[in-house]
Amino acid sequence: MVAELARHVRDVDAEHEGRTALWRAVFDNCPDNARALAEAGADPWRPMMAGWSPGRLALAGPYPDLFSPSRAELSAAEAAAAGEARRLIRALSEHFYDGYSLACVADITADDAARRLEATKAEAPEYEEYGDHGDYDDSVVGAIDVPGGCVIIQPWAYGASMPGVIKALSAGTVCYAMYANPKSGNQGSIVRDSLIEGWDLYFGGSASVGDTVEEVLFTYLYSHKAAAFCFANTGLRPTDSRAIVGPADMWLKLPERDYWN
Questions:
Q1: Which of 69, 125, 152, 162 is deepest in the core (most CB within 10 A)?
Q2: Are the C-beta atoms of 7 and 40 separated by less than 8 Å?
């Protein structure tokens, strides 16, 4: 189908929103489509999207030999980021549930998080499964230590991603949080030193014109992996999926206050 369509276009390298159809095929990990477009004359090495040609982007993904011989290479830092993405995604075994929230915080421990939230220890709640939307206490969150920082989780609601929670957690550091909203999809946020830099973001979505070199790469590496995107951007290095599905190292009861204003 793609090969047939490519034969009927005037310019197989026409750009839309700063990228060609070939670039899009690489980004979406569709190697057969990419090969068909290249055979129709699309240029794998045409620079676009902050310098990421389709061929160079492919080097960071699951099909590094898609275009041979290679006329580009990854830097040592880019190759390391690609390797860490593969490890992290395998470790998390990203679970596709709705209704949970998490906050990844760099360079603090679960005990630090409890102090910043002024929270008290709570009994572990009994929930049937991750993403269960039962009648649970929205003021109870879990805290888990992981290499590089800690994770705050709430398997049944948005509590871990509330503005008041993530602003308190991020003092002097950075926090990436998300809520897997069952009504509208993932809602991500970025908070640095208690200041919200981004809200209602779609982590794991498409790259945009104007993104930096690093942003294009991370968006590609963690496409459709919103939780892993949060871990990667805060430098957290979990070794298994416990950092998402628990069990938590401790459960915390948030003090009663307005966490939205």
A1: 152
A2: yes
Do 45 and 108 fall into the same domain?
A: no
Helix residue spans in 93-154 (DSSP H): 110-117
Report residue 78 as tokens: 């880019």
- The verdict on residue 80 lying in a domain is no
Residues comprising the chain, all counted: 261
Whether 19 and 102 share a structural domain: no
Contacts of 134 (CB under 8 A, 6+ apart): 127, 128, 156
CB atoms within 10 A of CB 236: 23
- Residue 53's closest CA among 40, 61, 62, 44? 44
Residues 124-155: b if buried by 16+ CB within 10 A, e if exposed: eeeeeebbeeeebeebbbbbbbbebbbbbbbb
The Cα 251–Cα 184 span in angstroms is 28
Q: How confident is the model at residue 117 (pLDDT cuts 50, 70, 90)?
A: very high
Cα 45 off chain centre by:
27
Say if residue 101 is in the same domain as residue 14.
no
> Tell me: the pLDDT tens digits for 140-189?
999 999 999 999 999 999 999 999 999 999 999 999 999 999 998 899 99
* pLDDT per residue as tens digits for the range 60-109: 999 999 998 889 999 999 999 999 999 999 999 866 678 999 999 999 99
